[in-house]
What does this fold into?
Amino acid sequence: MNIPPYLTLSYWFNPNPAPLMPWADRFLPILFSVLLFVGIIIRLVTLRQGLEKMTKRALIRAGNSLIVYGLFGLLLYLLTFERVTVLSARIGYLIWLALFAWSVWKIVKYVRVDIPAVAKRREERERLEKWMPKSK
It folds into this structure.
């Protein structure tokens, strides 16, 4: 039985891993640079546009996450490219992917759950305040 190298701990925790495959060596810096660039664009859009408060918060969260994970990914790639002992272990990419997925999940949850809940509460409050006496 031949176990793929991706399923062994020595592949992920090797302090001196082999260089990346040629396609990954080209793809990863492009991916991380695109994340960084899109994050900067989103942040610039939120500064200029007159957006609703909750939408603006969601875009700021997304922009900040993309900038942070783009920079962190470029740092990981630099450490791998320079073959820095221990810091270039493949586990860094798994940690990066897990943190990125967690961040995306939090943003999606905010957009799909929190924003509609706040809108519903605001609508309910406005409906009730319509009948309350107004101060003179």
Q: What stands out?
A: DSSP finds four helices and no strands in the chain. The chain has one domain: 20-129.
